[in-house]
Amino acid sequence: MTPPDGDTPPTDRASADPTGPEATHHRIAVEVADPLAAELAADRLWQLGTLGIEERPGLLVAVFDDESTARAAAAEFGAPTPEPLDAIAAVDAARWRARPVRVGPVLIRPPWVDPSSLPVGAADDADPTPALELVIDPGRAFGSGSHPSTRLAVALLHPVVGPGRRVLDIGSGTGVLSVLAGLCGSTVTACDIDPPAVETTRDNVRRNQLTGRVAVTDRSVADLTGPYDVIVANVTIDIHERLAAEIDRLAAPAGVVVASGILEGRQLDRLLAAHPGRVLVEHRREGEWAGVVLGPPTAAPTLERVAGRT
Q: How much is the mean pLDDT over the chain?
Protein backbone atom coordinates (compact mmCIF):
# COMPACT_ATOMS: atom_id res chain seq x y z
CA MET A 1 0.00 0.00 0.00
CA THR A 2 1.34 3.44 -0.89
CA PRO A 3 0.09 6.15 1.47
CA PRO A 4 -1.15 9.52 0.23
CA ASP A 5 2.15 11.36 0.78
CA GLY A 6 3.91 9.07 -1.68
CA ASP A 7 6.36 7.37 0.67
CA THR A 8 6.73 3.62 0.31
CA PRO A 9 7.92 1.02 2.79
CA PRO A 10 11.69 0.47 2.79
CA THR A 11 13.19 -2.56 1.14
CA ASP A 12 15.91 -4.73 2.60
CA ARG A 13 18.70 -3.90 0.18
CA ALA A 14 21.05 -6.33 1.88
CA SER A 15 18.62 -9.22 1.99
CA ALA A 16 20.72 -11.28 -0.43
CA ASP A 17 23.25 -11.96 2.33
CA PRO A 18 22.52 -10.09 5.56
CA THR A 19 24.93 -12.29 7.51
CA GLY A 20 27.84 -12.02 5.07
CA PRO A 21 31.38 -10.73 5.58
CA GLU A 22 30.19 -7.11 6.03
CA ALA A 23 28.08 -8.02 9.08
CA THR A 24 28.46 -5.31 11.73
CA HIS A 25 25.30 -5.79 13.83
CA HIS A 26 23.91 -8.73 15.79
CA ARG A 27 20.42 -9.70 16.84
CA ILE A 28 19.15 -11.92 19.59
CA ALA A 29 15.79 -13.59 20.15
CA VAL A 30 14.39 -13.50 23.69
CA GLU A 31 11.41 -15.68 24.63
CA VAL A 32 8.71 -13.99 26.75
CA ALA A 33 5.79 -15.70 28.45
CA ASP A 34 3.28 -12.84 28.59
CA PRO A 35 2.88 -9.08 27.96
CA LEU A 36 4.27 -8.14 31.39
CA ALA A 37 7.35 -10.29 30.84
CA ALA A 38 7.75 -8.72 27.39
CA GLU A 39 7.61 -5.20 28.86
CA LEU A 40 10.19 -6.01 31.54
CA ALA A 41 12.47 -7.74 29.03
CA ALA A 42 12.18 -4.84 26.59
CA ASP A 43 13.10 -2.34 29.30
CA ARG A 44 16.17 -4.39 30.17
CA LEU A 45 17.20 -4.74 26.51
CA TRP A 46 17.04 -0.95 26.11
CA GLN A 47 19.22 -0.60 29.22
CA LEU A 48 21.72 -3.01 27.67
CA GLY A 49 21.98 -0.83 24.57
CA THR A 50 19.77 -2.39 21.92
CA LEU A 51 19.20 -0.25 18.84
CA GLY A 52 15.71 -1.56 18.23
CA ILE A 53 13.25 -4.25 19.26
CA GLU A 54 10.76 -6.19 17.15
CA GLU A 55 7.85 -7.74 19.02
CA ARG A 56 6.64 -11.13 17.81
CA PRO A 57 4.23 -13.56 19.49
CA GLY A 58 6.11 -14.85 22.53
CA LEU A 59 9.36 -13.34 21.31
CA LEU A 60 11.42 -10.14 21.32
CA VAL A 61 14.07 -9.69 18.63
CA ALA A 62 16.68 -7.10 19.62
CA VAL A 63 19.45 -5.63 17.43
CA PHE A 64 22.85 -4.56 18.78
CA ASP A 65 25.72 -2.82 17.00
CA ASP A 66 28.36 -4.60 19.09
CA GLU A 67 28.87 -8.37 19.17
CA SER A 68 30.14 -8.52 22.74
CA THR A 69 27.13 -6.57 24.01
CA ALA A 70 24.79 -8.83 22.06
CA ARG A 71 26.47 -11.92 23.51
CA ALA A 72 26.23 -10.52 27.05
CA ALA A 73 22.53 -9.77 26.53
CA ALA A 74 21.91 -13.24 25.12
CA ALA A 75 23.67 -14.82 28.10
CA GLU A 76 21.63 -12.76 30.56
CA PHE A 77 18.35 -13.92 29.00
CA GLY A 78 19.48 -17.45 28.21
CA ALA A 79 18.91 -16.73 24.53
CA PRO A 80 20.59 -18.47 21.58
CA THR A 81 23.88 -17.21 20.17
CA PRO A 82 23.46 -13.78 18.48
CA GLU A 83 22.95 -13.81 14.72
CA PRO A 84 25.16 -11.41 12.70
CA LEU A 85 23.70 -9.07 10.10
CA ASP A 86 24.95 -5.96 8.35
CA ALA A 87 24.00 -2.45 9.39
CA ILE A 88 21.80 -1.66 6.38
CA ALA A 89 19.80 -4.85 6.84
CA ALA A 90 19.41 -4.08 10.54
CA VAL A 91 18.16 -0.55 10.03
CA ASP A 92 15.92 -1.38 7.07
CA ALA A 93 14.34 -4.17 9.09
CA ALA A 94 13.65 -1.77 11.93
CA ARG A 95 12.12 0.76 9.54
CA TRP A 96 9.84 -1.84 8.00
CA ARG A 97 8.51 -2.82 11.41
CA ALA A 98 7.89 0.72 12.66
CA ARG A 99 4.28 1.07 13.77
CA PRO A 100 2.02 4.01 14.64
CA VAL A 101 2.31 5.23 18.22
CA ARG A 102 -0.24 7.27 20.17
CA VAL A 103 0.75 9.46 23.12
CA GLY A 104 -2.36 11.23 24.36
CA PRO A 105 -3.51 13.52 21.55
CA VAL A 106 -0.34 12.93 19.49
CA LEU A 107 -0.11 10.31 16.74
CA ILE A 108 3.33 9.32 15.43
CA ARG A 109 3.24 7.19 12.27
CA PRO A 110 5.69 6.06 9.60
CA PRO A 111 4.97 7.57 6.17
CA TRP A 112 4.03 4.23 4.60
CA VAL A 113 1.10 3.77 7.02
CA ASP A 114 -2.13 5.31 5.73
CA PRO A 115 -3.82 7.04 8.71
CA SER A 116 -7.24 6.15 7.32
CA SER A 117 -6.35 2.47 7.78
CA LEU A 118 -5.79 2.82 11.53
CA PRO A 119 -8.59 1.46 13.72
CA VAL A 120 -10.57 4.10 15.58
CA GLY A 121 -9.79 4.12 19.29
CA ALA A 122 -6.66 1.97 18.98
CA ALA A 123 -4.56 4.39 20.99
CA ASP A 124 -2.95 5.02 24.36
CA ASP A 125 -5.50 7.74 25.07
CA ALA A 126 -9.26 7.48 25.46
CA ASP A 127 -9.76 10.12 22.76
CA PRO A 128 -9.88 8.20 19.43
CA THR A 129 -9.08 11.29 17.32
CA PRO A 130 -5.49 12.60 17.46
CA ALA A 131 -5.10 16.37 17.62
CA LEU A 132 -1.61 16.27 16.13
CA GLU A 133 -0.08 13.90 13.58
CA LEU A 134 3.67 13.44 13.14
CA VAL A 135 4.97 11.56 10.10
CA ILE A 136 8.35 10.06 11.04
CA ASP A 137 10.60 7.82 8.97
CA PRO A 138 13.35 6.38 11.24
CA GLY A 139 15.73 6.44 8.28
CA ARG A 140 19.30 5.58 9.27
CA ALA A 141 18.72 6.68 12.87
CA PHE A 142 16.93 4.22 15.08
CA GLY A 143 13.78 5.51 16.75
CA SER A 144 10.12 5.66 15.74
CA GLY A 145 8.58 7.05 18.92
CA SER A 146 7.76 3.67 20.46
CA HIS A 147 10.37 3.63 23.24
CA PRO A 148 9.08 4.59 26.71
CA SER A 149 11.62 7.41 27.04
CA THR A 150 10.37 8.99 23.81
CA ARG A 151 6.74 8.59 24.81
CA LEU A 152 7.48 10.26 28.13
CA ALA A 153 9.28 13.12 26.38
CA VAL A 154 6.35 13.61 24.00
CA ALA A 155 3.83 13.65 26.88
CA LEU A 156 5.86 16.18 28.86
CA LEU A 157 6.91 18.37 25.91
CA HIS A 158 3.52 18.79 24.25
CA PRO A 159 1.98 20.99 27.00
CA VAL A 160 4.96 23.39 27.24
CA VAL A 161 5.54 24.23 23.56
CA GLY A 162 3.57 26.57 21.34
CA PRO A 163 3.72 29.73 19.24
CA GLY A 164 6.41 32.19 20.26
CA ARG A 165 8.45 29.66 22.20
CA ARG A 166 12.09 28.91 21.33
CA VAL A 167 12.87 25.21 21.71
CA LEU A 168 16.18 23.34 21.70
CA ASP A 169 16.10 19.57 21.07
CA ILE A 170 19.38 18.00 22.20
CA GLY A 171 20.11 14.64 20.58
CA SER A 172 17.29 14.94 18.06
CA GLY A 173 17.68 11.38 16.68
CA THR A 174 14.87 10.92 14.18
CA GLY A 175 13.43 14.36 14.95
CA VAL A 176 10.24 13.26 16.73
CA LEU A 177 10.47 15.92 19.43
CA SER A 178 11.60 18.68 17.07
CA VAL A 179 8.73 17.95 14.70
CA LEU A 180 6.27 17.91 17.61
CA ALA A 181 7.45 21.33 18.83
CA GLY A 182 7.45 22.73 15.30
CA LEU A 183 3.92 21.54 14.57
CA CYS A 184 2.83 23.23 17.81
CA GLY A 185 4.14 26.54 16.46
CA SER A 186 7.50 26.80 18.24
CA THR A 187 10.77 27.87 16.64
CA VAL A 188 13.08 24.89 17.03
CA THR A 189 16.79 24.11 16.90
CA ALA A 190 17.41 20.37 16.49
CA CYS A 191 20.92 19.41 17.55
CA ASP A 192 22.70 16.08 17.03
CA ILE A 193 26.33 15.19 16.37
CA ASP A 194 25.54 11.82 14.72
CA PRO A 195 25.48 12.28 10.90
CA PRO A 196 22.69 9.72 10.22
CA ALA A 197 20.55 11.38 12.90
CA VAL A 198 21.12 14.83 11.40
CA GLU A 199 20.17 13.55 7.95
CA THR A 200 17.08 11.76 9.27
CA THR A 201 15.91 14.76 11.29
CA ARG A 202 16.25 17.00 8.22
CA ASP A 203 14.26 14.54 6.14
CA ASN A 204 11.47 14.38 8.70
CA VAL A 205 11.42 18.17 9.09
CA ARG A 206 10.86 18.45 5.33
CA ARG A 207 8.33 15.62 5.39
CA ASN A 208 6.24 17.53 7.94
CA GLN A 209 6.66 20.84 6.05
CA LEU A 210 8.59 22.53 8.85
CA THR A 211 11.74 23.64 7.02
CA GLY A 212 11.19 27.31 7.88
CA ARG A 213 10.47 26.59 11.54
CA VAL A 214 12.93 23.84 12.54
CA ALA A 215 16.66 24.36 12.03
CA VAL A 216 18.85 21.24 12.16
CA THR A 217 22.50 21.48 13.18
CA ASP A 218 25.43 19.17 13.90
CA ARG A 219 27.12 21.76 16.12
CA SER A 220 27.94 20.83 19.68
CA VAL A 221 25.78 22.20 22.48
CA ALA A 222 28.73 24.27 23.69
CA ASP A 223 28.67 26.21 20.40
CA LEU A 224 25.00 27.17 20.64
CA THR A 225 23.63 30.44 21.98
CA GLY A 226 20.34 30.90 23.80
CA PRO A 227 18.17 31.72 25.41
CA TYR A 228 15.62 28.93 24.89
CA ASP A 229 12.23 28.79 26.55
CA VAL A 230 12.20 24.99 26.42
CA ILE A 231 15.13 22.58 26.23
CA VAL A 232 14.33 18.91 25.69
CA ALA A 233 16.91 16.13 25.97
CA ASN A 234 16.05 12.46 25.55
CA VAL A 235 19.56 11.12 26.15
CA THR A 236 21.41 8.82 28.55
CA ILE A 237 22.21 9.90 32.09
CA ASP A 238 25.92 10.27 31.30
CA ILE A 239 25.11 12.80 28.58
CA HIS A 240 22.63 14.59 30.84
CA GLU A 241 25.35 15.02 33.46
CA ARG A 242 27.97 16.12 30.94
CA LEU A 243 25.69 18.75 29.36
CA ALA A 244 23.84 19.98 32.46
CA ALA A 245 25.86 23.19 32.84
CA GLU A 246 25.46 24.02 29.14
CA ILE A 247 21.73 23.32 29.31
CA ASP A 248 21.33 25.67 32.27
CA ARG A 249 23.39 28.30 30.43
CA LEU A 250 21.16 28.10 27.36
CA ALA A 251 17.85 28.14 29.22
CA ALA A 252 15.93 31.40 29.53
CA PRO A 253 15.43 32.72 33.10
CA ALA A 254 11.90 31.29 33.13
CA GLY A 255 12.78 28.40 30.84
CA VAL A 256 12.05 24.73 31.48
CA VAL A 257 14.03 21.58 30.81
CA VAL A 258 12.27 18.39 29.69
CA ALA A 259 14.52 15.42 30.43
CA SER A 260 14.04 11.74 29.61
CA GLY A 261 16.14 8.71 28.72
CA ILE A 262 16.78 8.01 32.40
CA LEU A 263 15.74 5.26 34.79
CA GLU A 264 13.87 5.65 38.05
CA GLY A 265 15.94 5.67 41.20
CA ARG A 266 19.65 6.36 41.07
CA GLN A 267 19.69 7.84 37.57
CA LEU A 268 16.86 10.23 38.41
CA ASP A 269 18.74 11.30 41.55
CA ARG A 270 21.85 11.94 39.44
CA LEU A 271 19.87 14.05 36.99
CA LEU A 272 18.39 16.22 39.74
CA ALA A 273 21.82 16.63 41.33
CA ALA A 274 23.22 17.82 37.98
CA HIS A 275 20.73 20.74 37.99
CA PRO A 276 20.97 22.10 41.57
CA GLY A 277 19.44 25.44 40.58
CA ARG A 278 16.23 23.91 39.26
CA VAL A 279 13.10 22.47 40.83
CA LEU A 280 11.17 19.38 39.85
CA VAL A 281 7.98 20.64 38.21
CA GLU A 282 6.61 17.36 36.90
CA HIS A 283 7.62 13.70 37.12
CA ARG A 284 6.17 10.86 35.08
CA ARG A 285 7.03 7.18 35.00
CA GLU A 286 6.50 4.41 32.50
CA GLY A 287 7.77 1.11 33.79
CA GLU A 288 11.35 1.65 34.93
CA TRP A 289 11.74 4.82 32.85
CA ALA A 290 11.37 8.38 34.11
CA GLY A 291 10.67 11.71 32.47
CA VAL A 292 10.71 15.08 34.21
CA VAL A 293 10.18 18.77 33.70
CA LEU A 294 12.65 20.99 35.57
CA GLY A 295 11.90 24.66 36.08
CA PRO A 296 13.45 27.72 37.70
CA PRO A 297 13.29 28.03 41.49
CA THR A 298 10.03 29.99 41.28
CA ALA A 299 8.22 27.26 39.33
CA ALA A 300 5.37 25.50 41.09
CA PRO A 301 5.61 21.67 41.13
CA THR A 302 2.68 19.55 39.98
CA LEU A 303 1.58 16.16 41.25
CA GLU A 304 3.67 13.23 40.11
CA ARG A 305 2.08 11.32 37.26
CA VAL A 306 2.58 7.65 36.52
CA ALA A 307 1.88 6.52 32.95
CA GLY A 308 -1.54 4.92 32.74
CA ARG A 309 -2.71 6.26 36.12
CA THR A 310 -4.07 9.48 37.58
A: 81
